């Protein structure tokens, strides 16, 4: 069934679980999930501590922390991830549709992007680093106000200057939009 948990000043740790949906809302509470199966949405929100989900399968993910890191390993589908002060790290993602925002912290993503929907990463102050399969195909719009843009991918550009690159990778596809005010953007191709 559906699971709904609220906690303050205490941690939540779950391992080897199954649910139709899972919602955890914490205040100063570390949230750590591992090896779970959720038919619907995983919804985790925390005010000041780390949120971690490793090997948790879900239809979609929403992880929000106002002051703490967000970590996902082994996920796919819609990834709606936000933190005000903390890093966002995603590993081993498959067909991910990204909606990522951080005000003060870096973003790292390793995995494949959804081939249907657009993805967006916004960071006010922090580096954005993506490791994507070498056979990826997508449209790209990358902008940084104060930082550099580096990529292993060949981008057929329509716009290029010191702080913005717009174009296509391979034959193009869904849009990947990356915006950072103060930080470097790096796209690395992996086999």
Distinctive features:
single chain; 191 residues; mainly beta; 19-stranded mixed β-sheet; 19 strands
Low-confidence stretches: none
Number of continuous helical runs: 0
Which overall shape is indicated by the principal axes computed on the Cα atoms? globular
Helix content range: under 10%
Strand-residue proportion: over 45%
Layout: helices, strands, pairs:
Layout lengths: L1 E7 L3 E4 L2 E2 L1 E7 L3 E8 L2 E6 L4 E7 L2 E6 L4 E16 L2 E17 L2 E7 L5 E7 L2 E6 L4 E9 L2 E3 L3 E7 L2 E6 L5 E8 L2 E6 L1
Parallel strand pairs: 1-4, 2-5, 3-5, 4-6, 5-7, 6-8, 7-9, 8-9, 9-10, 10-11, 10-12, 11-13, 12-18, 13-19, 14-18, 15-19
Antiparallel strand pairs: 14-17, 16-17
If you had to describe this structure to a student in words, what would you say it looks like?
The chain is an all-beta fold and 191 residues long. The protein is built from no helices and 19 strands. The chain has strands spanning 2-8, 12-15, 18-19, 21-27, 31-38, 41-46, 51-57, 60-65, 70-85, 88-104, 107-113, 119-125, 128-133, 138-146, 149-151, 155-161, 164-169, 175-182, 185-190. The protein has a 19-stranded mixed sheet that branches. β16 and β17 form a beta hairpin. The radius of gyration is 17 Å and the shape is globular. The termini are far apart. The model has no long low-confidence stretch (mean pLDDT 95).
């Amino acid at each position: 069934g559906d699971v709904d948990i609220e906690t303050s000043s205490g941690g939540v740790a779950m391992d080897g679980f199954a649910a139709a949906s899972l919602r955890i809302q914490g205040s100063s509470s570390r949230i750590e999930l591992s090896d779970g199966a959720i038919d619907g949405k995983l919804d985790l929100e925390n005010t000041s501590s780390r949120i971690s989900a490793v090997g948790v399968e879900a239809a979609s993910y929403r992880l929000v922390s106002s002051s703490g890191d967000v970590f996902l390993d082994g996920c796919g589908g819609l990834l709606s991830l936000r933190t005000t002060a903390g890093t966002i790290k995603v590993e081993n993602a498959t067909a991910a549709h990204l909606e990522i925002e951080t005000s003060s912290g870096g973003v790292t993503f390793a995995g494949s992007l959804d081939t249907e929907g657009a993805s967006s990463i916004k960071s006010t102050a922090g580096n954005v680093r993506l490791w994507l399969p070498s056979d990826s195909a997508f449209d790209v719009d990358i902008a940084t106000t104060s930082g550099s843009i580096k990529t292993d991918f060949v981008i057929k550009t329509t716009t290029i200057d010191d702080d913005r690159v717009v174009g296509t990778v391979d034959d193009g596809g869904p849009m990947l939009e990356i915006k950072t005010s103060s930080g470097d953007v790096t796209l690395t191709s992996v086999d």
